[in-house]
Amino acid sequence: MSNLKILISGSGIAGSVFAYCLLRAYPNADITIIERDPSLRLTGASVDIRSSAVDIIKWMGVEPTIRKQTTNEKGVQFVDANGKPVATLEASGRSDIQSVTSEYEIFRGALAKIFIDPIIERVTTIFNESIDHFEQGDDGVFVTFAKSKEVKKFDLLIAADGVRSKIRAAMLNTSAEEHILSKGVHVAYFTIEKDLLQGGQLAKWYNTTNRRAIFLRPAPDPAGRTRGNLMVITTDRELETRQKLDEAIQNGNESYMTLMEEQFHDAGWMAPEVLQGMRQSDDFYCSLFGRVRAPKLQDGRVVLLGDAGYATPGIGTSLAIIGGYVLAGELLNHGGDIKMASRGYENVMLPYVNSMTNSEAPMQYLNPQTWWGIRIRNFILGTVTGLKLDKMAMMVGSALGLTEKKVAMPDYPWLTEETLYNLEAEELIILLPPSLPKHYCLG
Question: What is the DSSP letter of 426?
Answer without folding.
Answer: G
